[in-house]
Amino acid sequence: MSCPWPPTSENVNVSEAQTVVSLALYNVVSWIIGATEEPTLDYYVNIADDLHLKVVSLCQDIVYLASKGRKQTPKSLTLGLTVRHLTGSTRIVSLLNRLGHCASWDTVLSLDTSLAQLTLVERDKIPKGFSKRAPTTLVWDNIDYGEETLSGRGTTHHTNGIMLQSLAIEPMSTAIRQPLRKRVSSFKAPPQMPIEPYHQSKRQGLQNLNQPLQAATCRMDTHFAAQAELAYVFVKSTFTDRCAIPSWTGFHTLLQCENALQKSALYYLPVIEASPTEMSTVNTILKRSVQIADQLELDHIVLVFDQAIYAKAQQIRWKNDGFMQRLVIRLGEFHTCMSYLSILGKRFGAAGLQDILIESEVVAPGSINGVINGHHLQSQHESS
């Protein structure tokens, strides 16, 4: 492999894996298994896609065995790293290595360590696939490992963030990164970034609520959506063959052009080693989000939280003019639906909605409170 160490996901896909397989080897293996009878050594023969993956995998094993493990292939590295993450077993990785399918345990451990070092080196840079001055969304939530202890204490409660961009407007320059040193199985973790204590004072609500709204602009933006929804309801209710009409999602997908949905760029942010239920952690999240916005040269950046973190984030944001100008905080779609269903339950629960759901056997009597409160998600899905 010609890429610098350590190889990343861009260097171990199928197209890159074929570059380590010579044309003659690929064609000979394809002839041996009967995938093709095309007699040529001028180009890679054409075979079925499912056979292509298997032939490339087999050819990588041959390259790895012929070099006695000195030439690493994408398969030998990724298979060993995957098995290590899934099982953590030295014996399984060593067994696959003896059969010639993956790299040795020491090589896999060195690769895992080098990838961690690469993450630390490039964590302050704009990730590849992202661009400046492009609309960006940050999603923050808790990340728990679910350990079980006798007292219930001592479990892991950290905070994880994800950065999203729908489409890169200005492609970033792809500078050649410097390779890291191989055969390194351990390294010293960097010091934890301090979390500044946040002392909560008297609660303060949102100020300046009397600002005029641009109703005409809102009507203009929602005019097409209202017409499309009305057309869907009309067609669905009057068309005799309902199977020919797509579902709600399929209907709106057909209204979009073919290239309307772009693949989003995704990047995992460094983990904050603190629980997001603490006000100090939430304050740290907001500060780091502003730093990311500055790095991307954005005036505003969108933050998405669940209900618990959303309430704390708004309390801090309403007291800070800098946060008010730079951060747009909203609930995720899932928690927005939960809040909406909870509103319906509070409004119509005592007006007969509970009796209707129970008598129609849509919801069991023991689950009706969860449905009315907007937290029993399975029953909500069945009732809808």
Describe the model:
Among the domains are: 9-121, no CATH class; 216-255; 335-383, no CATH class. It has 15 helices and five strands. The protein has helices spanning 14-19, 23-32, 49-66, 74-87, 90-98, 105-121, 215-238, 248-255, 279-295, 307-317, 321-326, 333-348, 353-359, 368-372, 377-383, and strands at 136-144, 157-165, 265-268, 301-305, 327-331. A five-stranded mixed β-sheet has the order 3-2-1-4-5. The model is unreliable at 378-384 (pLDDT under 50).
Briefly characterize the structure:
Strands 3-2-1-4-5 form a five-stranded mixed beta sheet.
| Alpha plus pi helix count | 15
Helix content: 40-55%
**Helix-strand pattern:** HHHHHHEEHHEHEHHEHHHH
Q: Are there runs of 5+ residues with pLDDT below 50, and where?
A: 378-384
Tell me the total number of β-strands: 5
Biggest sheet record:
5 strands, mixed
Distance between the termini: 53 Å
CA-based shape: globular
For the CA atoms, what is the radius of gyration?
A: 28 Å
> Structural class, from secondary structure content?
alpha/beta
User: What do the pLDDT scores average to?
Assistant: 82
Strand content: 5-15%
In the sheet with the most strands, the strands line up as 3-2-1-4-5
Helices and strands in order:
Layout: H1 14-19, H2 23-32, H3 49-66, H4 74-87, H5 90-98, H6 105-121, E1 136-144, E2 157-165, H7 215-238, H8 248-255, E3 265-268, H9 279-295, E4 301-305, H10 307-317, H11 321-326, E5 327-331, H12 333-348, H13 353-359, H14 368-372, H15 377-383
Parallel strand pairs: 1-4, 4-5
Antiparallel strand pairs: 1-2, 2-3
Helix pairs in contact: 2-3, 4-5, 4-6, 9-10
